[in-house]
Write a structure and sequence with these properties.
The structure holds 2 protein chains of 2 kinds. By secondary structure, chain A is mainly alpha-helical. In chain A, about 65% of the residues lie in helices and about 0% in strands. Chain B is mainly α. Chain B has 6 helices and no strands. The N and C termini of chain B lie far apart (about 105 Å). In chain B, about 5% of the residues are buried. Classes of the chains: A mainly alpha, B mainly alpha. Chains A and B meet through helix 1, helix 2, helix 6, helix 7 and helix 9 of A and helix 1 and helix 2 of B.
Chain lengths: ~210, ~120
Amino acid sequence: MQQYTTPYGYSLGNDNSEQRKDNTLPTHSAMNQFLSHIERQAFRIAQISTGSREDALDLVQDSMMSLVKNYADKNPDEWGALFHRILQSKIRDFYRRSKVRNKIKGWLGFGQKDDEYADVDPIQLAADLQTKNPQDMLINEDSGKALDQAIRNLPLRQQQAFLLRNWQAMSEAQTAAAMSCSAGSVKTHYSRAIKSLRAQLEEHKQ
Amino acid sequence: MNQHDDFLKQTKQQLDDSAKHLDAATLSRLNQARQAALQNKQKPAWFQSLLIPAAITAALSILIINQWMLPSNNEPAINLAQQQMPANDLELLTSNTEFEMLEELDFINWLMEEENAG
């Protein structure tokens, strides 16, 4: 049985390329294996972005259904990138549905941070009002929670770039496809995310 | 290894740990979501491709037949005959013709003729 390893580091166990097209059991098994591998990280990405366990579960389920329904016949090598693209798209939609809430936050002065964001939707910039300052997490001294909070404090684009580039080990091109933006934008968002996170977490340590 | 790489490695490790230590309730929900997605995939392609068109066709047929064959509450039955329902359209919609419906059509046509003559 030929091992089939995707760029994201998981093995599907066998090459399904000849059997995908007729929706036989091996494809089902391969898809099940893929989803079981990715579901935990997908949930955490959605949870960090939305700040809500329930919303994150909904987003992950919707993404799974969309992938299975529309892309099960694609090369398994493409499933990872496709799934992340679907998930990130749904997370962006989630933010847009919260647009009214975040616009109010914008009016309260949590909006634009610099000129480059002048034309950007306020939801891309607004931090969650319920967000705790990472320094507040000193009480708990849980660096994992502090990291979650620091990532959630980032604009959505920076969150996406950081989680996909660093955690999911996706290339700039793959991340750009998932985020529906250019590779250059990914590079910018990623570098800004790292800079911001280091600053927040350094404050947390002090 | 420089501080930049250390920072990235540390954050990645923390995120990996957080995914590894999800609570049982969340894992159960994720499992249910995965099974639901896979079960949706398992429906045969022909089932999914024909289901919606068949349902729409059935609904339209019922709607059209009801609209043409049953008199409205505010209109006398004779007005129904005045709607000039082409026989060929009826034939297209009701391939399994019911004689009772044909007899009613004959009666309506007779009424029209009587009215035109009188």
